[in-house]
Specification:
The chain has about 300 residues and is mainly beta. It has a single domain (about 40-280), classed as 6 Propeller (Neuraminidase). It has helices spanning about 100-105, 240-245, 275-280, and strands at about 10, 30-35, 40-45, 55-60, 65-70, 70, 80, 90-95, 105-110, 120-125, 130-140, 155, 160-165, 185-190, 200-205, 210-215, 220-225, 235-240. The strands form five sheets. Strands 3, 4, 5, 6 and 7 form a five-stranded antiparallel β-sheet that branches. A four-stranded antiparallel β-sheet has the order 8-9-10-11, with no helix packed on it. A hairpin with a 6-residue loop joins strand 16 and strand 17.
Length: about 300
């Protein structure tokens, strides 16, 4: 993941045309359109339901800016620069708005704190700005290195908040976090934020750095952008049916290493020859999708 400093935020609009059976129209060209200028390292964009014409832009340094009807507002929606370590792959990495944000004004941010560790925090807004005193931490994990922090937050079709975690950094997953359950790294977690005491539940593991992921609005399927190392980049696919199978909790009497793991391997839609390094990592990266190991649900207490 590379976060470059930018002075303008670009939004790409894709025009789709219906073509009748008797005629063929030339595809419309795709051109970037400047939406706003004056932003500082914008790395994520969100728009809660019920607020047409209002975009929320995450700046890596620790602020969330608002674009209202095409104009960048001077006052940040959220400013937690004093809590954030920013630079490289660290910083304020994403924001997700509660599905009922219009009613409860709750939203969630993922950032690396001043020690470089990952925190997911819930805030409430007054409808215009975040109320910083409303902060409630939901998720924490120590990071052994400065890179591969993941950082994506998104609400799934099941109403759960999904949290993307990288393998902790360095290169080649030296601590084997993608294949173990001793920490929350190299995994995607989900959490019922409406619960009295929300706890993270394991959704997927074996990832390297799920920098971004998205749910298909029509089907609920999950697509994961998993960052490669030197030669490979991946897009991983998880069908909605398999996400639904993850509901539940592991027995609290079992340590993560004692859990029975059931594997259901998904094979590639398309692929290219596999590099030797992938065999060492025990994963199968390829172009459009790759197998993710489906775990028995695991629950760890946030620290």
């Amino acid at each position: 993941m590379s976060c470059s400093r930018a002075s303008a935020f670009l939004l790409l609009a894709l025009g789709l045309a219906l073509v009748g059976p008797a005629q063929a129209a030339a595809p419309k060209p795709i051109r970037p359109v400047v939406v706003a200028r004056g932003l500082d390292s914008p790395i994520h964009l969100a728009a809660p339901a019920g607020e047409p014409g209002r975009l929320y832009v995450v700046e890596q340094k620790g602020t969330i800016r608002v674009i209202q009807n095409g104009r960048l507002q001077a006052q940040p929606f959220l400013d937690i620069q004093n809590l954030v370590r920013s630079g490289g792959e660290q910083g304020l990495l994403s924001v997700a708005f509660h599905p009922r944000y219009a009613q409860n004004h709750l939203f969630y941010v993922d950032y690396t704190d001043t020690n470089g560790d990952t925190r997911v925090v819930e805030y409430r807004s007054d409808g215009t700005r975040a109320i910083e005193s409303s902060a409630r931490q939901l998720f924490f994990e120590k990071q052994p290195f400065a890179n591969h922090n993941g950082g994506q937050l998104a609400f799934g079709p099941d109403g759960m908040l999904y949290i993307g975690m990288g393998d902790g950094g360095s290169g080649g997953d030296p601590n084997n976090n993608g294949q173990t359950f001793t920490n929350k790294l190299a995994k995607i977690w989900k959490m019922d934020v409406n619960a009295a005491n929300p706890q993270p539940v394991l959704a997927e593991y074996g990832l390297r750095n799920p920098w971004r992921f998205s749910f298909d609005r029509a089907t609920g399927d999950l697509y994961i952008a998993d960052v490669g190392q030197g030669a490979w980049e991946e897009v991983d696919y998880v069908p909605r049916a398999r996400l639904d199978q993850d509901d539940g909790e592991a027995s609290p009497s079992k340590a993560p290493g004692q859990l029975r793991v059931e594997s259901h391997l998904l094979y590639p839609l398309t692929h290219r020859p596999l590099p030797r390094a992938a065999w060492r990592r025990k994963t199968w990266p390829y172009c459009e999708t790759r197998p993710l190991w489906h775990p028995a649900p695991v629950k760890l207490n946030p620290r």
